[in-house]
Amino acid sequence: MPIYCYKNEDTGDVYEVIQKMTDDHIFFDPETGLECKRLFTVPNARIDSFSKIDPFDARDATEKTRNFKGSIGDLWDISKDLSEKREDKLGHEDPQKRKVFKEYEKERGVKHFYDKKTVRRVGGVASVDYNAPLPSVKLENNSSTKD
Protein backbone atom coordinates (compact mmCIF):
# COMPACT_ATOMS: atom_id res chain seq x y z
CA MET A 1 0.00 0.00 0.00
CA PRO A 2 1.21 3.53 -0.68
CA ILE A 3 2.49 5.93 1.97
CA TYR A 4 0.95 9.42 2.07
CA CYS A 5 2.45 12.40 3.88
CA TYR A 6 0.41 14.84 5.96
CA LYS A 7 1.54 18.00 7.73
CA ASN A 8 -0.01 19.66 10.74
CA GLU A 9 0.12 23.36 9.78
CA ASP A 10 0.00 24.51 13.43
CA THR A 11 2.79 22.34 14.86
CA GLY A 12 4.77 21.59 11.68
CA ASP A 13 4.72 17.85 12.43
CA VAL A 14 4.78 15.59 9.37
CA TYR A 15 3.14 12.16 9.44
CA GLU A 16 3.57 9.28 7.02
CA VAL A 17 0.35 7.33 6.76
CA ILE A 18 -0.23 4.05 4.96
CA GLN A 19 -3.52 4.22 3.08
CA LYS A 20 -5.15 2.48 0.18
CA MET A 21 -5.41 4.43 -3.05
CA THR A 22 -9.20 4.13 -2.79
CA ASP A 23 -9.33 5.56 0.77
CA ASP A 24 -10.35 9.14 1.48
CA HIS A 25 -7.04 10.91 1.94
CA ILE A 26 -7.87 12.66 5.17
CA PHE A 27 -5.74 12.47 8.32
CA PHE A 28 -6.25 14.03 11.74
CA ASP A 29 -3.33 14.75 14.06
CA PRO A 30 -3.57 12.21 16.90
CA GLU A 31 -2.43 14.78 19.50
CA THR A 32 -4.42 17.88 18.51
CA GLY A 33 -7.27 16.32 16.55
CA LEU A 34 -6.83 18.89 13.78
CA GLU A 35 -7.05 17.92 10.14
CA CYS A 36 -3.61 17.77 8.51
CA LYS A 37 -2.80 19.02 5.04
CA ARG A 38 -1.75 16.38 2.55
CA LEU A 39 1.75 16.85 1.11
CA PHE A 40 2.18 15.83 -2.49
CA THR A 41 5.53 14.22 -3.21
CA VAL A 42 7.23 12.90 -6.31
CA PRO A 43 6.50 9.16 -6.54
CA ASN A 44 9.52 6.90 -6.32
CA ALA A 45 8.06 4.18 -8.52
CA ARG A 46 8.97 3.81 -12.18
CA ILE A 47 7.99 1.65 -15.07
CA ASP A 48 10.86 -0.69 -15.82
CA SER A 49 11.33 -0.49 -19.58
CA PHE A 50 14.72 -2.17 -19.25
CA SER A 51 13.06 -5.57 -18.95
CA LYS A 52 12.04 -5.17 -22.60
CA ILE A 53 15.62 -4.85 -23.91
CA ASP A 54 16.56 -7.56 -26.39
CA PRO A 55 19.58 -9.25 -24.74
CA PHE A 56 21.10 -10.09 -28.14
CA ASP A 57 20.80 -6.59 -29.62
CA ALA A 58 23.55 -4.18 -28.50
CA ARG A 59 21.93 -1.26 -30.34
CA ASP A 60 18.66 -1.81 -28.49
CA ALA A 61 20.46 -1.74 -25.14
CA THR A 62 22.36 1.40 -26.12
CA GLU A 63 19.22 3.20 -27.24
CA LYS A 64 17.19 2.31 -24.16
CA THR A 65 19.96 3.27 -21.71
CA ARG A 66 21.13 6.39 -23.59
CA ASN A 67 19.40 8.94 -21.32
CA PHE A 68 19.43 6.76 -18.20
CA LYS A 69 19.45 8.84 -15.00
CA GLY A 70 20.64 6.13 -12.60
CA SER A 71 24.11 5.30 -11.29
CA ILE A 72 26.84 3.27 -12.98
CA GLY A 73 25.96 0.46 -10.58
CA ASP A 74 22.41 0.47 -11.92
CA LEU A 75 23.78 0.10 -15.46
CA TRP A 76 25.97 -2.79 -14.32
CA ASP A 77 22.88 -4.46 -12.84
CA ILE A 78 21.06 -4.08 -16.18
CA SER A 79 24.09 -5.53 -17.97
CA LYS A 80 24.19 -8.48 -15.56
CA ASP A 81 20.47 -9.15 -16.11
CA LEU A 82 20.96 -9.12 -19.90
CA SER A 83 23.89 -11.53 -19.55
CA GLU A 84 21.77 -13.90 -17.44
CA LYS A 85 18.98 -13.75 -20.04
CA ARG A 86 21.47 -14.67 -22.79
CA GLU A 87 22.73 -17.61 -20.71
CA ASP A 88 19.17 -18.81 -20.08
CA LYS A 89 18.22 -18.66 -23.77
CA LEU A 90 21.45 -20.22 -25.03
CA GLY A 91 21.76 -22.85 -22.31
CA HIS A 92 25.48 -22.13 -21.77
CA GLU A 93 27.83 -19.31 -20.79
CA ASP A 94 27.14 -15.88 -22.23
CA PRO A 95 29.47 -15.31 -25.21
CA GLN A 96 29.66 -11.56 -24.48
CA LYS A 97 30.83 -12.25 -20.94
CA ARG A 98 33.43 -14.75 -22.19
CA LYS A 99 34.68 -12.14 -24.69
CA VAL A 100 35.09 -9.54 -21.93
CA PHE A 101 36.96 -12.04 -19.74
CA LYS A 102 39.35 -12.93 -22.59
CA GLU A 103 40.05 -9.25 -23.35
CA TYR A 104 40.65 -8.54 -19.66
CA GLU A 105 43.12 -11.41 -19.34
CA LYS A 106 44.90 -10.42 -22.57
CA GLU A 107 45.31 -6.79 -21.45
CA ARG A 108 46.27 -7.42 -17.83
CA GLY A 109 47.85 -10.87 -17.86
CA VAL A 110 45.59 -12.17 -15.07
CA LYS A 111 42.10 -13.63 -15.02
CA HIS A 112 39.14 -11.40 -14.20
CA PHE A 113 37.93 -11.81 -10.60
CA TYR A 114 34.61 -13.32 -11.72
CA ASP A 115 36.35 -15.67 -14.16
CA LYS A 116 38.30 -17.50 -11.47
CA LYS A 117 36.76 -20.90 -10.81
CA THR A 118 38.44 -21.38 -7.40
CA VAL A 119 36.91 -18.33 -5.74
CA ARG A 120 33.61 -18.88 -4.01
CA ARG A 121 31.33 -15.89 -4.29
CA VAL A 122 28.46 -15.01 -2.03
CA GLY A 123 26.37 -12.13 -3.37
CA GLY A 124 29.13 -11.15 -5.79
CA VAL A 125 31.79 -10.86 -3.09
CA ALA A 126 34.65 -13.25 -2.33
CA SER A 127 34.10 -15.26 0.82
CA VAL A 128 36.51 -16.70 3.36
CA ASP A 129 36.65 -20.42 4.06
CA TYR A 130 36.95 -20.66 7.85
CA ASN A 131 37.25 -24.46 7.67
CA ALA A 132 40.51 -24.33 5.71
CA PRO A 133 43.56 -25.64 7.59
CA LEU A 134 45.57 -22.99 9.37
CA PRO A 135 49.19 -22.47 8.38
CA SER A 136 51.70 -23.59 10.98
CA VAL A 137 53.46 -20.59 12.47
CA LYS A 138 56.15 -20.75 15.12
CA LEU A 139 56.25 -17.72 17.38
CA GLU A 140 59.40 -16.93 19.30
CA ASN A 141 59.42 -14.96 22.51
CA ASN A 142 62.18 -12.33 22.18
CA SER A 143 61.02 -10.07 24.99
CA SER A 144 63.04 -9.90 28.16
CA THR A 145 61.41 -9.40 31.53
CA LYS A 146 62.65 -6.77 33.98
CA ASP A 147 62.00 -6.75 37.71
Structure overview:
- By secondary structure, the chain is an alpha+beta fold.
- The protein has two domains: 3-39, no CATH class; 49-116, no CATH class.
- It is 28% helix and 12% strand.
- It has a three-stranded antiparallel β-sheet, with no helix packed on it. A two-stranded antiparallel ribbon has the order 4-5.
- A hairpin with a 6-residue loop joins strand 1 and strand 2.
- The longest helix has 19 residues, at 72-90.
- The radius of gyration is 28 Å and the shape is flat.
- It starts with a strand and ends in a 21-residue tail after the last strand.
Features:
28% helix; 2 domains; 3-stranded antiparallel beta sheet; single chain; flat; 5 strands; alpha+beta; 3 helices
Distance between the termini: 73 Å
Helix amount: 25-40%
Helix run count:
3
> How would you spell out the order of helices and strands?
EEEHHHEE
Alpha carbon gyration radius: 28 Å
Oligomeric assembly: single chain
Globular, elongated, flat, extended or rod-shaped: what is the shape? flat
Query: What fraction strand?
Result: 5-15%
Number of strands: 5
Classification by helices and strands: alpha+beta
Q: Could you tell me the mean pLDDT?
A: 79
> Major sheet, described briefly?
3 strands, antiparallel
Question: What are the low-pLDDT stretches, counting only 5+ consecutive residues below 50?
Answer: none
What is the element layout, followed by pairings?
Layout: E1 3-7, E2 14-18, E3 37-39, H1 58-65, H2 72-90, H3 95-108, E4 121-122, E5 125-126
Antiparallel strand pairs: 1-2, 1-3, 4-5
